[in-house]
Amino acid sequence: MNFKKLQIFVFIVCLAVAASVLLFLRNKGTHTLIISHQLTGERYYTGKIREQDVLSFGWIHSFEHVDWDEYYRVEKKRFHLFTIAVGGFGAGIPAEMDCTYRYENGLIYMENIKGSVFPEFNWINSQTQLKYISVNDHVILKGSDLPEHGRIKLSLK
Predict the structure, then answer these.
(1) Which helix (H) or strand (E) is 14 found in, with range?
(2) CA triple 68-128-90, angle to 5 deg
(3) Residue pair 122/38 in contact by the 8 Å Cβ criterion
(4) Which of 45, 48, 140, 152 is the most exposed place for a label (fewest CB within 10 A)?
(5) Within 10 A of 94 (CB to CB), how many other CB atoms are there?
(6) 83 close to 111: Cβ distance less than 8 angstroms
(7) What is the DSSP code string of 29-95?
(8) Whole-angstrom Cα distance, residue 125 to residue 147?
(9) Closest-CA residue to 120 (of 50, 59, 35)
C-alpha cells in the first residue's frame, strides 16, 4: 500500500471513529418512551425522550371537574414529579404537601416536590378525563387517542 492510500485509509478510519463517538454522545441519556396497552402490548406511541426532558399529563379531575396538570422530569430512567398545577382543592387533591405553593392564572402550583419517583405509569384511561400527554410542551397523545377504559402503561426502555 503506498503512502497516499495509507493516508486516505487512516483519514476514513478517523472519520468513522469520530462519527461513532458523536452518535454515542448524542444518544447518551436517550430513552424510548412507550405508551401501550398493559395486557395486549399494543403500542399507541413510541418516541425518544432524553434525561431532563419534561413529561406532563393534563387531566380533568373526575370528581371536582377542575384542571389538574402534572409535570415530571426524566432522571436516571425514572419520572420525578416536580410540579402539580390544579384549579382548586377537594376530594383526592393533595392539600398538604411538603412543597412551595403559588397562585397564577387561576391555578394553584405545588412546586419543588421531592420524593415522588415513578419507574412507569399504569392507569385505566378515560377519554374525557385525560386531556393530553406531552413531552417538553409538545402534545404526543390525547386521551381520545387511547381506548376508553383501556388499561394503559407508559414506560421507558
Answers:
(1) helix 3-27
(2) 35
(3) yes
(4) 48
(5) 12
(6) yes
(7) TEEEEEEEETTT--EEEEEEEETT-EEEEEEE-TTT--EEEEEEEEETTEEEEEEEEES---TT---
(8) 7
(9) 35
Q: Which three cell numbers stand for residue 84?
A: 402539580
What angle is formed at CA 49 by the lines to CA 47 and CA 51, rounded to 5 degrees? Answer: 165
Considering the chain, what percentage of its residues have pLDDT values greater than 90?
A: 59
Contact 31, 156 (CB under 8 A): yes
**Sign of the alpha-carbon dihedral angle for 40, 43, 80, 63:** negative
C-alpha cell belonging to residue 154: 407508559
Q: What is the pLDDT along the chain (157 residues), one digit of tens a residue?
A: 676 765 666 556 545 544 444 444 444 589 999 999 999 999 999 999 999 999 999 999 776 678 889 999 999 999 999 999 988 776 666 667 778 889 998 888 989 998 889 999 999 999 999 999 999 999 999 999 999 999 999 999 9
C-alpha cell at 157: 426502555
Cell of 146: 387511547
Domain limits of the chain?
Answer: 3-156
436516571: which residue's cell? 76
